[in-house]
Amino acid sequence: MQFLRNFFDNLRPNFEEGGKFEKYYKAFEAMETFAFTPPHTTHNGAHIRDAIDLKRTMFFVIIALIPSLLFGIWNTGHQYYLSIGQYPELMDGFMDKIIFGAIRVLPIVVVSYAVGLGIEFGIAVAKNHSVNEGYLVSGMLIPLVLPSEIPLWMVAVATAFAVLIGKEVFGGTGMNILNPALTARAFLFFAYPTKMSGNMVWIPQESGMASVDGYTGETLLSQAYNAPAGSQFGSVAYDAAGVQYGSLADTMWASFWGWIPGSIGETSVFAILLGAAFLLYTGIGSWRIMLSFLIGGLGMSMIFNAWGANPFMSVHPLQQLMMGSFMFGMVFMATDPVSAAQTNTGKWIYGFFAGFLGIMIRVFNPAYPEGIMMAILFMNVMAPLIDHYVVEANINRRLKRAKAVAS
Amino acid sequence: MSKNVKIRRGADIKLQGAAERVKAEAPFPSAFAIKPTDFHGLTPKMVVKEGAEVKAGSVLFYDKYNEHVKFTSPVSGEVAEIVRGAKRRIMEVRIVADQNQSYESFDVSDQSSEEKVKALLMSSGLWAMIKQRPYDIVADPKRKPKAIVISAFDSAPLGADYDFILHGQNEAFQKGIDALAQMTSGKVHLNTRGGSTADAVFTNAKNVVHNTFSGPHPSGTPGVQIHHLDPINKGEVVWTVSPQHVAMIGRFLLTGKVDMSKTIALAGSEVEKPRYLSTWIGASIKSIVEGQIKDGKNRIISGNVLTGDKVDLDGYLGYYSDVVTVIPEGDEAQFMGWLAPNLHKYSLSRAYFSWLMPKKRYKLNTNMNGEDRAYVVSGQYEDVLPMDVYPVQLIKSIMTNDIDKMEKLGIYEVAPEDFALCEYACTSKMEVQKILREGLDLAQKELG
Asked: What 3-state DSSP class applies to A2?
C-alpha cells in the first residue's frame, strides 16, 4: 500500500492551500479518506471513539443490496428470454440471461453513480464541505427501483432531480426530508408515467424481436387489480408468459423467489430477506421500522381480506406482502435513518403507518396498482411531526413533574 | 426509602490495563499545580504572587464572583510560576514543594451550625470538592441543595475502585457525610454497585440513604443516579461529591489540617504495572508516570478515557481526577480502515466483530475512526443514555441556541459526563460533550 500512500502524499501539496487545485481539496480529501482512514485523533472529551463510521455504515447497506442486484440482473435476462420464447426453464441459458441482464442493468447503475456522485462532489467543492457518504447507498437504490427498460437519460435526469431537489436544497445528507431514491422514482413516475406503469415497461425488449404468442408480461399486481369479479386471485394468476400458476402456493413460490416481472431489485423476496437479515444482524437497519411496517401491511391486508369487496382485497395477506415493492420498501426504503422518524417510539408509529397506508393505497389507487412508494414518501413528510409529538410527550412529563414538586 | 435501580441502557467498554488492587507510593512530587481551568466557569482572582511562600491550605486564589470560595495550596512550598494562556487567562499556579511539609492551621472546634461548617470548607479550599447540578460546576454556597448524591463506584472504563481506595477510612468518611448532611434540606444518597458487596466504609455509613445501581456504565455517574432517585426540576439544586473527597473533607474537619493526599489508579494499556498510587491533588504527572509507561507515542489522560483531560508529561494531576490513564495515540492512517475486519477495534455496533467477543479486553487508541459528518444514524445515543431525555434533540437545540427548547428537553438534568458514551458511540463523530458544555454555559448565563 506504500505506493498508494506515496501517490496521495505526492498529490497532496497541489490541493492544499496555495496549491494549483486548492479549490478541489474536498474532492481530494474524499478520495484520500476512501483509501486511507485518516490519522485524526481525539482532542478532549471522549479520548477513544467507536470503530464505526459513516463509510462503513453505508457500505454495509450496499452489501445488503447485492443479493437483490444480482438477482435483478439474472431476472432481467430471464424475463427477456421468456418474452421471446427462449429458455423458458429457470436454469436454462443461465449465462445468457446474466449477460443480457448485466448489459441492461449495469449501465443504469453506472449512470446513477456518475450523475449522483458528480453532483455531490461538485456541491462539496463549491460549498467547501466534505463529501458525504449518503449517496453511495442512494446510488444503488435508484437503479433497483426502476424498470430495466428505462432509458439512461431518464435515469440521469431523475438522479439529478433527487440529489438536487430531494437532498441538496435542504442542506445535503442528513438534512433531507424525503428519501432521495424514492424521490427519483416518484419524479419519473409523474414526469414519464408511460415509462413507469403499464404492462410492457417491466420487460426488456430489443427492437425487431416480437414477443411470443400468449406472452403478456403482466405483473402479479396488475393481474390482481384486473382480476374479474368473483374470481380468486390464486386460481387465475399466470406468469409473464401467460402460463397459469394454478394454485396460490405456486404464485407465492414464484413471488418469493422473484422470477416475475417488476422493477430490477424488487421482485425477489428471498434476495431482499437476505439483505434484511444482514442489516438486522449488523444492527444498521432499524428492526423497529421493519417489524412495524410488516405489522402495518399485514394488518391492512387482513382488514381487506375480511372486507373482501373485490378480488384484489381478497388476495391472501402473505401474497399481498410478497408482491410489488412492499418488501423492498420495508427493508431498504422505509429504514433510511434520515427520512424516517428519529425517536424509537416514533419509529414504531412511522413504520406501522407506512406499511398500513402502502397496502391501502395499492388497493384503492384508481390509476395504478401500487402504493408503497407513495406511502413511504408520505410518512417521510409526517415523520418530523410524529417525532415532534413524541418529544412533546417527554416535555410534558418533565413539566408535570416540576409542577407536582412546586405544588 | 432506599432504591435498587437496574440500568439497562449503556455499555461497558472493556479496556486493557485495569489497575491491580495494590497500592504503591509514588515518589513525593517536587512540583505541584492547581489549575483554575479544572473548575469550569471560574474567574480566579489571585492572592499570591510568584515567589510567595505558602503552606498546605494557604489561599492561592478565590472566585471573583464569590469571594468566600477559596482555592488553596495542596502543599507547602514556593509559588514558582503563574502560567497564563490566551487573553492572560490563568492556566496553572505552579508550586515547588518543600521537603518538610507545614500546614495552615484551622480552628475546627466549632462545627455546631451549617454556616460554620460552610465557612470552614470555603476558607480551607475544600469547598471546590462539592459540585452542583445543574450546570456541573463548583457548588454555589448560597443555594441549598434538595439532595446530595455520592456515587461510591466508578463505572467508567478503567475507573478507580473506591472500595479499595477508601478501605479503612470509616471515621473520616462518616465525618464528611455528617458535615454534608447538615447542608441539605433533603437526604444524602450513597449509591453502591448492585449485585456486589461494597466495602464496610460504605455499608456501615450512617446518616445516609443507601441505594444500589446495577448495570453498565453510566450507572455510576451521579447524573444518571440523580435522574433515577430525585430528578432535578427548574430551580432545584443537587450536589455531588466523589467519595474520596468526602473522606478528605472529613479528615479536615477532624484534624484542622488541609491534607490533599489521595489514592489514584494508574491504568491503561500503556502502563507497565497498572496499580494504585498514593499521591496528592495537583501532583506533577511526571512523579506519577515516570518509568511506569511503555515506549511509543502515548496519550496521558488525567481522568478516564471518556471524560478526562489530556495532559503532558510535564503537566499536573487534575483536581477531580482519581485515575490517570495512558493509552496509545492513534495518529496513523490505515489503508481502507473503514472496510477492514479490524478485529482489534471495539464497536458498540455489530458492524464489527467485537460484539461476538464480550470477554475480550481491548487496547484502544485515540484515533477518531472516521470523520465528522452530519447526523445520519438515529437511535445510537438513546441506547447508551439511561435517562428519560431525548439526547439528539437536546444537542440539536443547543446547536441552534434555542434556550427555551433546551430547558424543556432537560438541560438541568444533564452533565457532559452523562453524555460521554454518546460521544463515544457517535457514527458522525460529534463532539457531544463539548456541545453540551456550551449549552450548559449558555443556559447558566441566560437562565441563572
From this structure: helix
Answer whether B350 sits within 8 Å of A283, measured CB to CB. Answer: yes
- On the CB side of A243, how many CA atoms lie within 13 Å of its CA? 11
Q: In chain B, which residues have their Cβ closer than 8 Å to the Cβ of A33? A: 371
The C-alpha atoms of residue A148 and residue A146 are separated, in whole angstroms, by: 6
Chain A interface includes B336 (CB < 8 A): yes
- Name the DSSP letter for residue A161: H
d(CA A318, CA A315): 8
Rounded Cα distance between A309 and A148, Å, is 34
Q: Where are the alpha helices (DSSP H) in A315-371?
A: 317-322, 326-328, 344-364
Query: How many Cα atoms within 13 Å fall on the side-chain side of residue A86?
Result: 12
Which residues on chain A are in Cβ contact (under 8 Å) with B345? 51
ipTM: 0.91
Tell me, yes or no, if B329 comes closer than 8 A to chain A by beta carbon.
yes
B195 inside 8 A of chain A by CB: no
- Residue B427 CA from chain centroid, whole number: 25
| DSSP 8-state assignment for residue A208 | T
Parallel, antiparallel, or unpaired: how do β-strands B187-193 and B137-138 relate?
Answer: unpaired
Cβ-contact B249, B307 below 8 angstroms? no
CB-based contacts of B99: which residues, under 8 Å, 6+ apart?
none
Q: A347 and chain B: CB distance < 8 Å anywhere?
A: yes
d(CA B160, CA A401): 35
Closest to B264 measured CA to CA, from B71, B39, B26: B26
3-state SS string for A45-91:
CCCCCCCCCHHHHHHHHHHHHHHHHHHHHHHHHHHHHHHCCCCCCCC
**Residue B280 φ/ψ, nearest 5 degrees:** -130, 155
Residue A106: its H or E element: helix A94-127
Say which of B334, B351, B428 has its CB closest to residue A284: B351
Distance between CA atoms of B305 and B320, rounded to whole angstroms? 14
pLDDT for the residue A208: 56
Q: Does A50 touch chain B (CB under 8 A)?
A: yes
Among B330, B376, B428, beta carbon nearest to A41: B330
How far is the CA of B441 from the CAs of B14, B33, B226, B319, B390, in angstroms? 32, 26, 20, 20, 19
Q: Comparing C-alpha atoms, which of B188, B247, B191, B257 is closest to residue B218?
A: B191
Task: Extract the C-alpha cell encoding A78.
Answer: 430471464
The SS3 of residue B190 is: strand
Q: How far apart are CA B191 and CA B148, in angstroms?
A: 11
Is A396 in the B-facing interface, judged by CB distances under 8 Å? no
Q: Which residues contact A93 (CB under 8 A, 6 or more apart)?
A: A77, A81, A86, A87
- In tens, the pLDDT along B9-45 reads 999 999 999 999 999 988 899 899 999 999 999 999 9
B175 grid coordinates? 465525618
pLDDT tens digits in sequence order for chain A, 407 residues long: 788 888 888 888 888 888 888 888 888 888 888 888 888 888 888 999 999 999 999 999 999 999 999 999 999 999 888 888 888 888 888 999 999 999 999 999 999 999 999 999 999 999 888 888 889 999 999 999 999 889 999 999 999 999 999 999 998 888 899 999 999 999 998 998 877 766 666 777 665 556 666 677 778 888 888 888 777 777 778 777 777 787 888 888 989 999 988 899 999 999 999 999 999 999 999 999 999 999 999 999 999 999 988 888 888 999 999 988 999 999 999 999 999 999 999 999 999 999 999 999 999 987 777 889 999 999 999 999 999 999 999 999 999 998 888 77
> B336: which chain A residues are within 8 Å (Cβ-Cβ)?
35-37
